[in-house]
Amino acid sequence: MFNNAFFLTFVKKGFVVFNGIISLMLVARYFGPAMRGEYMFIVNVVIVGTTILNLGISLIYPHFRKQDKRAKNLFVSYSFLQFFLYLIISMLILIFTKDMIVGLSALLISVNVLNLQVTQINLVENLKQQSVIIIISSLINTALITLAFFMTSENLYLILIIFGLKSYVSMVLSLMSLWDKDFKFTIVPVKYKKMTALAFLPLLTSFLIAINYQADIIILKMMSVDFYHIGLYSTGVALAEYSWMIPDIFKEVMFHHNARKDDIKRMTFSIRLGFTAVVLVAIMVIILGKPILGLLFGSDFVAAYPIVVLMFLAVPFMVYTKIIGTLFSANGGWRFYFITLLISVLLNIGLNVALIPSFHIYGSAFASVVSYAFCGMTMLVWFKRKYKVPFRDVLFMKWGDIRKVAPFLFRKKASSVASLIIIGDGGHSKMVQNIVRESGTYRLTEVWDDKYRESVAQEGILYTAVDEKLQSLTQMDADIVFFVAIGDNEIRKKIARTLALAGKKFAVIVHPTAFIEATVEIGEGSLVMAGSIVQANTVLGKHVIVNSGATVEHDISVGNFVHFAPGSVVTGGCTVEDNVLIGAGSVVVPNISIGANAVVGAGSTLTRHIEANTLEYSRKKTE
């Protein structure tokens, strides 16, 4: 159960929401509306400052991680240097201004910047560990606020320090998670310069997001709204923000998955579940809003009910903004995202300035609703057009989703990572074993090869003979999956046929650095190796090998037991039938048909159709 990313993130967000509401309740009762308004104004300034001084670095990490699995060293090192620079500046601000609020705010920004960066990096590298870290920091925050509530009187500085300690705990634990045996402090000024330049547009984008969420409270203060009404407004907004945790569950899992490859099927499933859940929560809160406000925060805060109603009208649109937005972060496509957010922010600020003089805090809430709705619907329209997704797939849950939810969340631990048996232990198999270890998709338990006359156990893996095991297939667990890692195609086919007749399942193994477009279909028993590319609408048959650095372009139909050798390129619209070998470094031009059992020699350039059982060797001979 706890190996399921969605379930663990759900548990994490459940803890965060529960502890957050308790903290919100205690802080509201501790301060009252007026001082809570002052506290939230400072917190919003810190959030905006953190977003700007982050420089967008954490947002480009998934894009770099796709290209280099060691990018962690570079990004964590950069984050450390930022932190120490900001810490020095914060101390100077405190010394020269002699203003505790200004100095404390600067220190909070310094800690929050490093926490934001290492948290985002760890979401990609160690999603499950990061979920546990956020639960721990949330519990510590609630415990400290509870102590402050019962043991002290109103103290703004104390609550701000507790706010900073939550980020500090999360930061330290995230760094401990990232600081493994492979970590190496890396200072490369040229790469730092490139990272900063590439992060500029993401920085502006994240700044717009922060402004869109935090600008209302800052604008209310700038337009002379008193802290009492800002306190009421911020409480209504805070309740709505906790409902945003629902799409955040799916956002963080999609952030983790999209950093490796786009997963549109999982994304539409996430959108449907998120949208259904937030609509149900919104209906419940709108109906029971007044009793909830009175119970949690006291009678002074019941006046925030109209704000709660207005803000919850905007929540469903946040599902589309948050979940679809992970695609832009993972693929580096920030331009459209930036323009959408810019229009949304300008709309929000313009409506705030226009409506606050006449409608006070209610005008600000209405401006937020319009802004969030515009942003969410624009993202949805883009997503539908880009991936040709039917409208019904991005609304409410389907009947099939309901039937899948329970086992999806509560599957047994043993079935969440399937046990794998690899047949063959030669050079090709060694590469496959390494991919399995790096990807973590399967748990390698046994390797079968005739060179093992006696069974040997090493590092939890059993190495044993093939023939004896093949005779006892029917007695084996049905959940175990197999992969035939033998280079000889005829032997590979024979063993695969034996396994298939016994009803066994085959693994699909993909190296983390391979790029596979979301619309690609991959048959069972297939292997996609490091640095290879498989483009849109291509269908790979069963037991296909796409070797290191090979490129299989768009709209290609590939049969069974086909081997694309290292560095080979097959361009768009081709048909490749069963048992074909495309030799190393060869190139096949568009719309070519290659018959079954054909061989395209290494280094060839294929410009015509070839028949079955043909050897094509078109490279020019040299004297």
Estimate what percentage of residues fall within beta strands: 5-15%
Tally the helices: 18
Question: What distance lies between the first and last C-alpha atoms, to the nearest angstrom?
Answer: 65 Å
- Could you estimate the helical fraction of the residues in percent? 55-70%
Largest sheet: 7 strands, parallel
- Kindly name the structural category: alpha/beta
Instruction: Label the overall shape.
Output: elongated
- What's the rounded overall pLDDT mean? 82
Low-pLDDT ranges: 1-5, 251-262, 407-415
Rg over alpha carbons: 28 Å
Spatially, the strands of the biggest sheet line up as: 7-10-13-16-19-22-24
Number of strands: 24
Overall description:
It is a single chain. The protein is of the alpha/beta class and 623 residues long. 62% of the residues lie in helices and 10% in strands. It contains 18 helices and 24 strands. Strand 1 (419-423), helix 16 (427-439) and strand 2 (443-448) form a beta-alpha-beta unit. Helix 2 (57-67) runs parallel beside helix 4 and helix 8 (200-222) packs across helix 13 (334-387). Residues 1-5, 251-262 and 407-415 have low confidence and may be disordered.
